[in-house]
Amino acid sequence: MSRLIKVALLLGVLFGNATVSAQPFSFVAIGDAPYQMPEGVTQVERLIARINRQQPAFTIHVGDIKNGHSRCDDAHMELIRKLFATFAQPLVYTPGDNEWTDCHRTDNGGYDPLERLARVREVFYPTPGMSLGRAPMQLDTQSADPKFAKFVENSRWEKSGVQFATLHVIGSNNNLQRNPAAANEYFERNAANVAWGVG
Q1: How far is CA 182 from the centre of its chain?
Q2: In the predicted model, is pLDDT for residue 126 greater than 80?
Q3: Could you tell me which of 132, 154, 63 has the C-alpha nearest to residue 102?
Q4: pLDDT for residue 3 is more than 80
Q5: What long-range pairs does 151-157 form, CB within 8 A, spacing at least 24?
Q6: Which residues pair with 92 in a beta bridge?
Q7: Which of 107, 143, 149, 168 is the most buried (most CB within 10 A)?
Q8: What is the SS3 string spanning 127-191?
Q9: Cα torsion at 2, 61, 40, 25 (round to 10°)?
Q10: SS3 28
Q11: Cα–Cα distances in Å, from 145 out to 36, 152, 168?
Q12: Could you give phi then psi for residue 76, rounded to 5 degrees?
C-alpha cells in the first residue's frame, strides 16, 4: 500500500510535467533495489549506469533497499549509501519498511526497529536539506521546523513549476504494530506526514 501511495504522488506530477512549463524535464522513480543479494548490487550498478546515461533531472528511490528477509546490518546500509553516491544527478531517497520496520524479524538480525530508523536517518541524510548523488540539489526539509526536527526524510523541491514531495509512509501497517513504542512512533510520524502533506 505504501509503495502505491508514494508512486501515486509521483505520477500525479509526472503526467503534467511536459505541459506545466516551457522547460520539459524527465525524472526516474525506482524502488525495491537492490532486493536479492548479492546479484542485486550488480543489477543496481547497471541500472545506475543506464540512468546516468539518460541524464534525468533527478531520481527518486521510493524505499526498500533490501528484501524483507535479509539482515539489517550497518554494512548493508553503508554499501547502499556508496551505491547512491554513484548517481550522477541528484537522488532523493525515502525509506521503505524493509530497511527498518521489519528489522525485528529473526532473519533480519532481531534489531530494534526504532534504532534502525535512527540509523537510516544518520546514514542517508547526513546533510538535511540536500539530496544524495554526485551533484546534490537543495531540498526543503521538514526537519527545518523544530517541531519536526527528526523528520529529515520528508522533503520538497520544485522543478520547472512542478512541486514534488516525499512522505515517510511504509508497509508493514506503517509500523502501527507489535508494541506501544512502535505505535508511538507511528502516531508521531503520521502527524508529521499530515502536517508536511498539507503544509
Answers
A1: 20
A2: yes
A3: 63
A4: no
A5: 151/189, 151/192, 151/196, 152/121, 152/125, 152/128, 153/93, 153/94, 153/95, 153/120, 153/121, 153/124, 153/125, 154/192, 154/193, 154/196, 155/92, 155/94, 155/129, 155/131, 156/196, 157/58, 157/92, 157/131
A6: 60
A7: 168
A8: CCCECECCCCCECEEHHHCHHHCCCCCCEEEEECCEEEECCCCCCHHHHCCCCHHHHHHHHHHHH
A9: 130
A10: strand
A11: 37, 10, 16
A12: -70, -45
Owner of C-alpha cell 548493508: 76
Q: Which cell numbers in the block locate residue 145?
A: 521546523
Cell of 114: 526504532
* Residue bearing cell 531517497: 93
Cell of 134: 554526485
Three-class DSSP category at 108: helix
- Strands 140-141 and 155-159, bridge-based pairing: antiparallel
pLDDT at position 5 is 44
In the structure grid, which three cell numbers stand for residue 84, read together?
Answer: 547512491
